[in-house]
Amino acid sequence: NAGVMQNPRHLVRRRGQEARLRCSPMKGHSHVYWYRQLPEEGLKFMVYLQKENIIDESGMPKERFSAEFPKEGPSILRIQQVVRGDSAAYFCASSPQEDGYTFGSGTRLTVV
Amino acid sequence: LAKTTQPISMDSYEGQEVNITCSHNNIATNDYITWYQQFPSQGPRFIIQGYKTKVTNEVASLFIPADRKSSTLSLPRVSLSDTAVYYCLVGNSGSARQLTFGSGTQLTVLP
User: Fold this and answer.
1) pLDDT at B82 over 90
2) Cα atoms in the 13 Å half-sphere on the side-chain side of A51
3) Do A45 and B43 touch (CB under 8 A)?
4) B99 vs A45: CB contact, 8 Å cut-off?
5) Which residues of chain A lie closer than 8 angstroms to B93, CB-CB?
6) Residue B94: is its pLDDT beyond 60?
7) In this complex, do B42 and A106 lie within 8 Å of one another by their Cβ atoms?
8) Residue B99, min C-alpha distance to chain A (Å)
9) Could you tell me if A104 and A91 are in contact, meaning their C-beta atoms sit under 8 angstroms apart?
10) What does the alpha-carbon distance between residue B96 and residue A35 come to, in Å, rounded to a whole number?
11) Considering only alpha carbons, which residue of chain A is nearest residue B86?
């Protein structure tokens, strides 16, 4: 049973480009959470999704950021028109219900 | 959300017991205390969770005094591979939405 899979592990984007981060939850998990970790800081909650529904996006920046978790396929965190301040590690976690979650290894986004 | 305070860093030697204390003065009645471990370039990994008194599992013990305003993670006989950042989190029954990660404690185990 594979863990939470995130890809790519490393992503480099130029300012103004779009970044797409993917998260495949553990088998049987229908709840997905995205966190962002800036250098030397702890993780900050961004968004909580279930299949085809955004449950809580209180931690998402108001502009340029969006997330989805379609009926089929991985959850996607999309960042449009990236800026240098978006450089961070983005972690996904999944759970079978709203408890007992497992984190992926993260995607490190570097904006140049 | 209850705010937590923990030391920024700690050093220890292999074989020693390490105790990391976390303060959470405004913990709510229905909040649990959870500790995570994070290695470089990896996501956090659950270590232990408790509500009150003492909890022990195969990797650590968690001590929580009666007032629950602090907690202590105890790692017995640490090894070099225990070098990591340890986070103390306070939230309602483990809901990821309510978890607030502080800056954590960087534990460095020396040979």
Assistant:
1) yes
2) 9
3) no
4) yes
5) 99
6) no
7) yes
8) 8
9) yes
10) 10
11) A42
Q: CB–CB of B50/B32 below 8 Å?
A: yes
Chain segment B8-23, per-residue pLDDT in tens? 999 999 999 999 999 9
Which residue type occupies A37?
A: Q
Give me the pLDDT at residue A66, please: 97
Chain A residues in contact with B44 (beta carbon < 8 A): 43, 91, 103
Burial A22-38 (b: 16+ CB within 10 A, else e): bbbbbeebebbbbbbbe
In angstroms, the CA B54 to CA B61 distance is 7
- Looking at residues A3-13, what average pLDDT do you find? 96
CB atoms within 10 A of CB B6: 21
DSSP 8-state class, residue B55: E
Q: Does B74 touch chain A (CB under 8 A)?
A: no
Mean pLDDT value across residues A37-56: 90
